[in-house]
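User: My advisor, Dr. K., asked me to get a structural model of this assembly before our group meeting. I'm new to this, so sorry if the format is off. These are the inputs:
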Amino acid sequence: MASEHSESQETNSTSLVEDSLNISFEDINYTVRHGVLAGGRKTILHDLCGTFNAGELTVIMGQSGAGKSTLMDILAGYSKPTSGSIYVNGRVRNEKMFRRRSCYILQDDQVQNMLTIQESLHIAADLKLGNHISGQQKKQRIEEIITSLGLTRARRTRAGNLSGGQKKRLAIGLELISDPPVMFLDEPTSGLDSSISKQIVYLLHLLARQGRTVVVTMHQPSAGLLYMVDRIYAVAAGRCAYVGSVTQLLPYLERMNLMCPPYHNPVDFLIEICVENASGLVESSNNGRNNNWCTNISHETDSSIIEKSNLSNCEEVCLTTLPTPKEDPTSKILLALKSTYSTSFCKQFTTLTRRSLLSMWRDPAFTIMSTGIHCAMALFIGTLFYNIGSDAKYVRDNYNFLYFSLMFLMFTAFSSVSINFPEEIPVIRREHFNRWYTAGAYYTSTVVSALPKQTVCTLSYAFIVYWLTGQPGEINRFASFCLILLLVSYVALCKGLLIGSLFNVKNGVIFGPFFIMPFTIFSGFFLRYTDAPFFIRWLFNASFLKHGLVGVVLSIFGMNRPNLVCSDMYCHYSYPIQFLQDNGMVGEKFSLAIVALISIGLIVSVLAFVILKIRLKSKW
Ligand SMILES: Nc1ncnc2c1ncn2[C@@H]1O[C@H](COP(=O)(O)OP(=O)(O)OP(=O)(O)O)[C@@H](O)[C@H]1O
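Assistant: The format is fine. Below is the predicted structure of the whole assembly, which you can bring to the meeting.
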């Protein structure tokens, strides 16, 4: 096969003019580390070869653990093979170019639950088509997709309320916006009943018939689906057991004296006998090189397929209005762009922020609950420390109140993001891989759209407690107090994003406190900076809570605050300067606390972004 392929790199110009992309691969090996300490390696794919053509629906099938998803990941460009080559129309694949012409719909595909089908498609069109396609054309494209995928009646239904089949169709529709000629789908029918599975496979069959190369993995396609499948690629323990048409499968097996019982699904039979006859099958298929059994690919008419597969319920899926890639200029307009992404960073950022805010607006329960909790806690704390602010007798209590406020805001901001953010990762992974937006645009929009809620919650809390605890009625002190609380909650929010980027929800809940608790120890509240051993003092400077505590204490007791009234015989802290001195804060500066908080916030944000980027690149 190698000789058939030109070794020249696939050039941009050739990709631009080609509407159909045939994919072939040669000697694909994939090895992973097996046991970090043992240093062993495990080979998952062994010298796999094969060809998947445009205009055909190819199903990669095999037992669980055979290596289907691994092969699919490699073909889609999601992971790199350890060795081997992939060709597009006979030329070595240019990965960057290929990713612009293909899409990958993952198994755990998730959509934005709070948005309706129509809104999701509009956002996808804004991100994937940008300003290169006019508003009118975008609208027309969305209408075509909605009609073709049979989603007209559900167009105003939120994705979270859609059935499994409708959700899958929406996921496919979102990628069809930019009309990629190559589509990869990992287990598109998993979790769906047989009638919905038929609908999905019929849709994929029609998409293939329009000239696309459609490759899907399926554990074990049922007999009812096989009429719509053009090519089967059976994987057995990382090797190819059969490549060819459905109709040729039985003759292929019979030639090897493997007789499928009458009325038995040949695919089920192949899967059953795969293990014990693996070596013979792999030899016979020449590990995917033997294309003799592909000659009879039927290309049956739609009416005969509908009849044979009993597709009466599926008439709603009908691609009559969707133009074929040949007729549709969208893909070519997008390919002519120099950049990998169709839209600028700004456009991606504004569209993603709009989407986040819209989702938040649609699901106000979380925002209302958060604000409610902040207000309720503020009332409780305000009542507990009622009117202590101007009395020298309660300076210690006031200090405790200030520290508690920082801790409360830190934990609420941290946990709200560290729990919510990991749930978004599967959506971001798909959209980012399919070049909707850069990781930077997504990350920036996430931070920016989280700020309004955090600001409202923090200011509600600050306003209530400041007033109830009877702090000085000076606008600049109140403003400084609010500013510090806001900055502390923003830094905690960024730390939440960092943990959310690193861990899933479960591990985030377990490990999150380990990441945040050390900052409480080095805040200066439990152990004063001046009392700490010399070699750990730097940890105080790295603790945002220390700078937060300095900031709030200075805003209440610093800035030349006059002496406090004493309601007792003797008050040790009638002179605010005395309190600052005892807590080692005399030399501290409010402006430095602000600078330190902003710097720590920026460092944590950058770290969270880098981790998110790494996570999106890897499968972790
Ligand atoms: N990173 C890895 N480390 C160790 N083993 C791995 C790794 N990735 C995949 N495997 C193993 O490789 C084999 C093939 O995995 P793959 O997910 O491709 O199978 P599959 O055919 O798609 O299975 P399923 O139908 O259950 O999804 C499995 O045995 C899996 O455990």
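One thing worth pointing out at the meeting: The chain has two domains: 2-101+215-313, 366-617.

User: Perfect, thanks a lot.
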